[in-house]
Write a structure and sequence with these properties.
Blueprint (H helix, E strand, L loop, with lengths): L17 E5 L14 H12 L4 E5 L11 E4 L2 H5 L5 E3 L5 H12 L16 E2 L3 H8 L1
Parallel strand pairs: 1-2
Antiparallel strand pairs: 1-3, 3-4, 4-5
Helix pairs in contact: 1-3
Length: 134
């Protein structure tokens, strides 16, 4: 018998996409120079406030990829097959604009991301992914 805890019922998902912006140990700090960290978060909130939940979170334990942003699908996007997309090294205002455009189009499961975001996509460890989903 496994000692792992099992979830009784999978979560239904949020009605709109959730954007988690790491602001922990390395992300959002002077350790990543020449980036307007506060401006990055403010731009996401300003641009997506009506379409997505934008939240600052503690360290996502992917410091080598700082600044990290995770785009989680809406409930509709998850039903369509969308899964959280981890983006790293998001240190350029153009990358933030591409994220905004993608989420405005529907985000994971509902719209293909701009091809340029492939350069930022990475796979976080299973442990870290599970912590964000819980």
């Amino acid at each position: 018998m496994s000692r792992r805890t099992r979830r009784a019922v999978p979560a239904q998902g949020a009605p709109r996409p959730t954007i988690s912006v790491c602001r922990g140990c390395c992300c959002g700090t002077p350790k990543i120079p020449d980036v307007d960290h506060a401006g990055q978060l403010a731009e996401l909130r300003r641009s997506l406030g009506e379409r997505a939940t934008v939240r600052a979170v503690e360290c996502l334990d992917a410091c080598e990829q700082a600044n990290v942003i995770v785009v989680q699908p809406s409930a509709e996007g998850r039903r369509a097959g969308g899964r959280p997309v981890w983006l790293g090294l998001v240190n350029d205002p153009d990358a933030v604009a591409d994220i905004v455009a993608w989420v405005e189009a529907g985000g994971p499961g509902l719209a293909d991301p701009p091809e340029i975001l492939d350069l930022y996509t990475f796979r976080a460890s299973r442990r870290v992914q599970q912590e964000l989903d819980s």
